[in-house]
Amino acid sequence: LLPLVIVALVIGYVDRENQYVSSEVKFATAISSIIPLSYYIGMGIASIAAQSNFAVGAVVNATFGSITELTFYITALLRGHWVANPCLQEVVKAALTGTLLGCILFIPGISMIIGGLKHSEQRFNSRSAGVSSALLFISVGGVFAPTLFSKAYGNLVCDACTNTTGGNSTSNGSGLFVCHNCHYDLVSRAQISL
C-alpha cells in the first residue's frame, strides 16, 4: 500500500478540479494511503520507546501516536480559516469529542466485554483503574463544560437568518430557518443582568 501515498499526493495536487479523477476515488486513495503511514509511525514510536526510558516513551507515544488525526485537524482548521467556513471548526470539535470518548470509554469497554466472554473473573490493576476513572471524569467535564457554560450564561447571536421558503427573519412564514455565523454572546447577557 505504500505506493498509494505517492498516488494520493499526485492526484491531490495535479487534479485539483476533479477533471481526471472523482472526489470519491481521491478520498478512497487517501484513506488507503494512511494505513502504511500509520504502520510506520507506530513502528517508529515503538522503536523509540524500546530504546529509551518509560517517561520518554510515554511522551513520544502521546505526542506522535495520533499525528494523523492532528494533521487532519490542523488541515481542516486552516482550510476553514482560508475559505471563511466555520463548519470545518465544528467537524474538528466533533472529531475531537469522538476520539476522546472513544479512547476513554469505547475501547476499554469493548476490551472488558470481550475479556468477560472468555474469562468469568478478570483482574485489573487498581492504580490503573483509578487513573482511568479520574481521566474519564476530567474528559467528560472538559467535553461538556463549555457547552453548559454557554447555555447558562450566553445568548445565541446569529449574523443572518433566512427562512427556507425564501423570506428573511422578520417574515411571518412558517418553516425552517437557516442561520449563518452563530455564536454565544457572553458579554451582552452580563451587561443585561447588571
From TrEMBL:
InterPro entries (UniProt xref): CaH_exchang, NaCa_Exmemb, NCX_ion-bd_dom_sf
Locations listed in the record: Endomembrane system
Keywords: Antiport, Calcium, Calcium transport, Ion transport, Membrane, Transmembrane, Transmembrane helix, Transport
Principal location listed in the UniProt entry: membrane
Top-rank taxon, per record: Eukaryota
Protein's UniProt keywords contain Zinc: no
Leader peptide range in chain numbering: none
Annotated TM spans: 25-42, 54-74, 94-117, 129-149
Pfam families reported for this sequence: Na_Ca_ex
Topology term for the membrane: Multi-pass membrane protein
The keyword Membrane belongs to this UniProt entry's keyword annotation: yes
Domain Sodium/calcium exchanger membrane region: 27-144
Entries under Gene3D superfamilies matching the protein: NCX, central ion-binding region (1.20.1420.30)
PANTHER family tied to this protein: VACUOLAR CALCIUM ION TRANSPORTER, VNX1 PROTEIN
Protein name as annotated: Sodium/calcium exchanger membrane region domain-containing protein
Originating organism: Ilyodon furcidens
